[in-house]
Amino acid sequence: MPIPKHLKQFERILIRERNKLEIKGVRMAHAALVKQYQSFAQKLALSFNKDEFEALTETIRADEIEKFLNKYYGMFAPIGLMYRKNAISQKSAITGMKYKQAEDDEYLAIFQQYLQSRLSGEAGKSIRTITSTSQDKIKGIIREILSDAELQGEGIEVIKRRIMKSVGQNLRGNGWARSRAIAQTEMIKASNQAAQYAVDSTGFEYRKYWSTSHLEGIRPTHSDAELESIEKNGLRRDERFGNGLLFPGDPAGTAAEVINCRCSVLHEIV
């Protein structure tokens, strides 16, 4: 038996809303990366010792990424509200329970506060990972240019110009692709965390399903998780899927399981 039809109908609406937020997230992520690279450029311009160039990358701050993620995660509070409404709608069909729209603002604030709090916990590793990747990319550029400059006998000002040119080319060539991967990965983390928290906040009993996007390149472990949830007619609240995750984008999961994931978690109220 496939995932219940009414859940898939809800998912189609959900994906449209997530996609809108992802588009905004790509622009926001790119702006944060640009600011990280600009902070390095400013330090490089003031440096006159090429032996210190690589060390300058360690001073690239994580605050631009933290500000981006803090704002981005908060944007997914309405996704939590969508899940809450869907759960109550299902409960209404069973018990006649009525949805109280007057509570929307209260729950939006609760979900936003919850999502932003995740950045100080497990989700905080995203800040460190993104910043570390920026540092490593610039370090690689510096090492290559310094090695070549030593053979060419180039002066420090020439080396600095070459580094900044290569850093800019790297940002232009890979920046948007990297921004898209960041926004997509964090979108799945934030939206599915909002989903779990929102449905849990209702106090309803439910069975959860892993739903893949069915796009090209789906991980076998994600296809297996979807099949597992179908075969079991959903998993229990705290039950982990076969890949070890509680839901798609679980921040406790490995990079191999969460990066560029587009899967959803769906809840059948019982």
Structure write-up:
The protein has helices spanning 5-45, 53-56, 63-74, 77-95, 104-117, 124-152, 156-202, 220-231, 255-258, and strands at 206-211, 264-269. With 270 residues, the chain is mainly α. The mean pLDDT is 93. The two termini are 17 Å apart. It has one domain (5-203).
| Largest sheet geometry | 2 strands, antiparallel
Number of E-type strands: 2
- How many domains, as an integer? 1
pLDDT averaged residue by residue: 93
Low-confidence stretches: none
Key phrases:
2 strands; 270 residues; elongated; single chain; mainly alpha
Quick recap of the structure?
With 270 residues, the chain is mainly alpha-helical.
Show the helix and strand layout.
Layout: H1 5-45, H2 53-56, H3 63-74, H4 77-95, H5 104-117, H6 124-152, H7 156-202, E1 206-211, H8 220-231, H9 255-258, E2 264-269
Antiparallel strand pairs: 1-2
Helix pairs in contact: 1-3, 1-7, 3-5, 3-6, 3-7, 4-5, 4-7, 6-7
